[in-house]
Amino acid sequence: MNDDAPFVSGRTRMFAILGHPIEQVGSPAMFSAEFIRRKAPALLIPLHVLPDDFDATMRQLLKLGNLDGLVFTIPYKQRALAFADQVGAQGEAAGGINGLARRADGWHGDMFDGLGCVEAFRRQGISLAGKRLQLIGAGGAGSAIGVAMAFEAPRSIRVTDVDPQRAEQLVERISCVAPSVEVTTGPARLDDIDVLLNASPVGMLTDARMPIDVSAIDPRVIVFDAIVVPEPTPMIAKAKERGCRVLVGREMMRGQMARIVDFFGYPEKAGDSAR
């Protein structure tokens, strides 16, 4: 009997994803598999951190000698910004980060959710140019998705959030980076849109709610949900029943994963096997 697990040793470089809750994340398996595929001596593990403990936990984690990076999920993408010594363009525009990587000159942060969402649409052959978008959720993921979508030249984006001030802040960010796009805030509607995007936590895990009732949605509307677990979410399941084209959270994760692994310092090498 072999007592060794060849994918981990004392030389393994550690990465982690922080969230509350954490059961819904698919990142540990997906990232660890990608590290192994790229022959990188690294693993990513889930860490359940309570909101009151986040700052103290971060200060200690960043002292670990074999920790080279972190991923952030709900509700920490905006709070994590304070721990970055340098922030990339996507993180600056979105006002939050979901990746933090160790560099020789400190910790570098950036946001990849928006890029991953756009990539998911691209891989499905769906153009966002000229489309009318309804975005639900203006937190870390919602901000990143809204900003990234704005660069795709949609006709309009309506932002809906339980916190009206947060929605207004996202509208201002989008207006700054894409002044030609019509951006508004207000209650979510389905009667005047081409694409519905959920970036809120409503429908996660055992939450049976939908962020908006899609039981009568026009089948021509494209529906995206950033939530990974469950799959499908209640909204995605109902949208499929209506005949809508749907995209799920795992597709967004796939879209951003390669970029984050590059960001973590393990770029694709010539000769690596195809994904």
In summary, what is this structure?
By secondary structure, the chain is of the alpha/beta class. 31% of the residues lie in helices and 20% in strands. It has two domains: 13-111 and 253-263, Leucine Dehydrogenase, chain A, domain 1 (Rossmann fold); 114-250, 3-Layer(aba) Sandwich (Rossmann fold), CATH 3.40.50.
Verbal overview:
This protein has two domains: 110 residues, Leucine Dehydrogenase, chain A, domain 1 (Rossmann fold); 137 residues, Rossmann fold (3-Layer(aba) Sandwich), CATH 3.40.50. 31% of the residues lie in helices and 20% in strands. It is built from eight helices and twelve strands. The chain has a six-stranded mixed sheet with strand order 2-1-3-5-6-4. The protein has a six-stranded parallel sheet with strand order 9-8-7-10-11-12, with helices on both faces. The chain starts with 12 loop residues before the first strand and ends in a 12-residue tail after the last helix.
